[in-house]
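TASK: fixed-backbone design
INPUT:
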């Protein structure tokens, strides 16, 4: 299963993406617990305005059914922030160790 975090917007309007193959991680079970604990159904509605020059985060998990959340920067807190940081850290570490 793949978890992907994308960040777009900001001052430059660039998009950056990080991904982790959870099945290949030594702590797969803790990833699954973390993903199950996220408030997927409680993401902000379209009325939540994206603020100028701030990021928008898209978080996807290739589960069955697949899950997706689109969050303005100010809503990436608590368990969302923990997942975003974990995916970014793991993805960056894997990129440094890949040939």
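OUTPUT:
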């Amino acid at each position: 299963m793949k978890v992907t975090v994308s960040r777009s917007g900001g001052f430059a309007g660039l998009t950056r993406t990080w991904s982790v193959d959870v099945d290949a991680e030594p702590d797969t079970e803790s990833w699954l617990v973390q993903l199950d604990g996220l408030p997927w159904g409680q993401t902000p509605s379209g009325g939540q305005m994206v603020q100028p020059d701030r990021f928008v985060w898209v978080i996807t998990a290739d589960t069955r059914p697949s899950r997706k959340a689109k969050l303005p920067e100010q809503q990436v807190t608590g368990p969302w922030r923990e997942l975003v940081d974990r995916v970014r850290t793991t993805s960056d570490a894997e990129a440094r160790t890949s040939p």
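COMMENT: Strands lie at 2-9, 16-21, 55-61, 67-72.
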